C-alpha cells in the first residue's frame, strides 16, 4: 500500500477485513441456502452491505471478505455489487473463501484463523492498520473515528463496544474498563456484568469490531497459532490475551455512530433471530424509523438490480392499497391490501390478498385471497391461493416455523409438504 501523506485520513492506510463465514443458525431455515451476512435486509440490501458500506464511507479502499459456510449466494452478491474497486486507484476488494491454503485438511477454525490463513494476502497490500469487522450486524459507523482513538491512545487493540443496560448484557462479551476506557477484564456472558465507571447502570458489550496495527496483529496471530489448545478466535483467545498482556482499549459506539437528522438514537441491531430480523425490517415501515436508509450522506451500497418501478394498481375485484409499506423495484401489487409490510425486489401480490406485518423476500408470488400476518416469506416462494397464516397459532406451528412471539417463517419446502 503506497505511503499516504501524514495529514491523510488513517482510513487510507487501512484494510477492512470482514468475517462473513458464520451460518447464523438462530435464523433457522432462513440460512439453509445462504450464510447470515447474505440474508436480505431492508427491501434491497444484504446484511453484509452495512459493514462494507461503513468501510467505504469511512474512506477505506482495501477490503477483504472471508467466507466459509454456504458462500455461493454471498460471493455472487459481492461479485455483482462490489466489483467497482480499481487497482489503478490503489483500491482492492478480495473475496477469501476457506481454501485450505495453510493445510490440505484445515478450514477456518475460528475468527482469528480466518485472518491467519490469509496473512500473505494482507502483507501483499502492506496496510498500516487493519479493522476486523463482523459481517452480520445492522448499523452505521465511521471507522475513521475509531482509528484515530486507537492511534491517540497508543493501544495494542481497540475494541468497538455498545453501551447496553447492565442487566441486559448477560448474553454478550462484556468489557470492564477503568476511567480511561482501558479494558481491565473481558467477561464472556457474565451473570453479573460490570457497570461502566461513569454510568454504573450500563455495561460495555463487544461489537466484534477490532482495530490493530497490522504488524502487531500478524505477530499475535502467529503466536496464537502456535499456542496448544487455542480455539483460534478473537473473542475467546486474542482479545482476552491482550487484555491481560497488552493494552486493550474500549471504543464507545456512540462516539462514531453515524446519524442523520432523522435518527434520534445510535442504531445497532443483531438480526440473528427470526424475531429480531422481522422486527428490524418492519421498523423500516414507520414514518420515522430508527434506521434512516434515505441518508444520502452515508449511503448503503449494494447490488442495484435493473428493475422496472414498483406498481400499485386496482383490478376488477377491488383496489390496491399499501399503508405504511416499503416496496422495492419490480413489485406489483394488484387489487391487494398491504399494511406495515416490506416487499423486496420483484414480488407480486394478486387480487384480494391481504398482508399485514409481512417481510417478503425477493421474487415471491402471492396468489389471490391469501391472508398473511406477522410472517417472513423466503425468496422465490409461491404462496397458494387462499392460504391463511397468522390467525390460528396451532395450525401455523404445525405447518411452518413459528416463534414464541408468533412470527411465522414460510419457505417453499414447508409449502410443498402441505400438498
UniProtKB/TrEMBL annotation:
<dbReference type="GO" id="GO:0008878">
    <property type="term" value="F:glucose-1-phosphate adenylyltransferase activity"/>
</dbReference>
<comment type="pathway">
    <text>Glycan biosynthesis; glycogen biosynthesis.</text>
</comment>
<feature type="binding site">
    <location>
        <position position="173"/>
    </location>
    <ligand>
        <name>alpha-D-glucose 1-phosphate</name>
    </ligand>
</feature>
<dbReference type="InterPro" id="IPR011831">
    <property type="entry name" value="ADP-Glc_PPase"/>
</dbReference>
<dbReference type="GO" id="GO:0005524">
    <property type="term" value="F:ATP binding"/>
</dbReference>
<feature type="domain" description="Glucose-1-phosphate adenylyltransferase/Bifunctional protein GlmU-like C-terminal hexapeptide">
    <location>
        <begin position="308"/>
        <end position="410"/>
    </location>
</feature>
<comment type="subunit">
    <text>Homotetramer.</text>
</comment>
<dbReference type="InterPro" id="IPR011004">
    <property type="entry name" value="Trimer_LpxA-like_sf"/>
</dbReference>
<keyword id="KW-0067">ATP-binding</keyword>
<feature type="site" description="Could play a key role in the communication between the regulatory and the substrate sites">
    <location>
        <position position="107"/>
    </location>
</feature>
<protein>
    <recommendedName>
        <fullName>Glucose-1-phosphate adenylyltransferase</fullName>
        <ecNumber>2.7.7.27</ecNumber>
    </recommendedName>
</protein>
<comment type="similarity">
    <text>Belongs to the bacterial/plant glucose-1-phosphate adenylyltransferase family.</text>
</comment>
<dbReference type="Pfam" id="PF00483">
    <property type="entry name" value="NTP_transferase"/>
</dbReference>
<feature type="binding site">
    <location>
        <begin position="188"/>
        <end position="189"/>
    </location>
    <ligand>
        <name>alpha-D-glucose 1-phosphate</name>
    </ligand>
</feature>
<keyword id="KW-0808">Transferase</keyword>
<dbReference type="InterPro" id="IPR023049">
    <property type="entry name" value="GlgC_bac"/>
</dbReference>
<dbReference type="InterPro" id="IPR056818">
    <property type="entry name" value="GlmU/GlgC-like_hexapep"/>
</dbReference>
<feature type="site" description="Could play a key role in the communication between the regulatory and the substrate sites">
    <location>
        <position position="68"/>
    </location>
</feature>
<dbReference type="GO" id="GO:0005978">
    <property type="term" value="P:glycogen biosynthetic process"/>
</dbReference>
<keyword id="KW-0320">Glycogen biosynthesis</keyword>
<dbReference type="InterPro" id="IPR005835">
    <property type="entry name" value="NTP_transferase_dom"/>
</dbReference>
<feature type="binding site">
    <location>
        <position position="108"/>
    </location>
    <ligand>
        <name>alpha-D-glucose 1-phosphate</name>
    </ligand>
</feature>
<feature type="binding site">
    <location>
        <position position="206"/>
    </location>
    <ligand>
        <name>alpha-D-glucose 1-phosphate</name>
    </ligand>
</feature>
<keyword id="KW-0548">Nucleotidyltransferase</keyword>
<keyword id="KW-0119">Carbohydrate metabolism</keyword>
<dbReference type="Pfam" id="PF24894">
    <property type="entry name" value="Hexapep_GlmU"/>
</dbReference>
<comment type="function">
    <text>Involved in the biosynthesis of ADP-glucose, a building block required for the elongation reactions to produce glycogen. Catalyzes the reaction between ATP and alpha-D-glucose 1-phosphate (G1P) to produce pyrophosphate and ADP-Glc.</text>
</comment>
<keyword id="KW-0321">Glycogen metabolism</keyword>
<dbReference type="InterPro" id="IPR029044">
    <property type="entry name" value="Nucleotide-diphossugar_trans"/>
</dbReference>
<feature type="domain" description="Nucleotidyl transferase">
    <location>
        <begin position="17"/>
        <end position="286"/>
    </location>
</feature>
<keyword id="KW-0547">Nucleotide-binding</keyword>
<dbReference type="InterPro" id="IPR005836">
    <property type="entry name" value="ADP_Glu_pyroP_CS"/>
</dbReference>
